[in-house]
Amino acid sequence: MQLTVDGVTHDVEVDPRTTLLDLLRERLDVTAPKKGCDHGQCGSCTVLLDGRRHLTCLALAVSYDGAEVVTAAGLDEGDELHPVQQAFLEHDGYQCGYCTPGQVCSAVGVLRELADGHPSHVTADLQQETEASDDELRERMSGNLCRCGAYVGILAAVRQAAGAQR
To answer: Is the keyword Oxidoreductase assigned to this protein (predicted)?
Structure first.
């Protein structure tokens, strides 16, 4: 199969039982996505898969032949950090850092969902443009857990990045 990861194309033979997370980490040495729970419950393995946030621990790699994967390590533009990465630094949206790559990728996906007008469970009016309120951001980021409890900084970072995109 062929997979593009952070702009680099890889041709690999894959056992059909291999998860995308294991392919990335063990075969391609892409260590930004982390193996947290291995059950799709913590979000530490989140990447952008063809532009949408995705849990790689639940995805069989062979299902994504030809896909484009962007990890937190592939978001920067040369020497410039992605606005979400910069916001995480400015607001201390991390402590131990284990969940941070998944949080960052999820935040990028959340901002894209908001820009595209996708509602969430807390969207009050489906006829209006969805605002990046704290309730919206908390709901959309709820699939990414932080064992250290850095949620105040994470929310502030996503809020800042949402404002920068307007």
So the answer is: yes
CA contacts within 13 A on the Cβ side of 144? 34
What is the tens place of the pLDDT at every residue in 115-144? 998 888 888 888 777 888 999 999 999 999
Q: Are strands 8-11 and 46-49 parallel, antiparallel or unpaired?
A: unpaired
Q: Are strands 68-70 and 2-5 parallel, antiparallel or unpaired?
A: parallel
Query: For 61-88, how does the pLDDT look when each residue is reduced to its tens digit (9 = 90+)?
Result: 999 999 999 999 999 988 899 999 999 9
Nearest to 97 by CA among 148, 36, 140, 153: 148
Task: Report in angstroms the alpha-carbon separations of 131 from 68, 144, 163.
Answer: 29, 20, 10
User: Domains plus CATH for the chain?
Assistant: 2-74 (3.10.20.30), 83-165 (1.10.150.120)
Cβ atoms of 99 and 34 closer than 8 Å:
yes
Instruction: Classify 114 as helix, strand or coil.
Output: helix
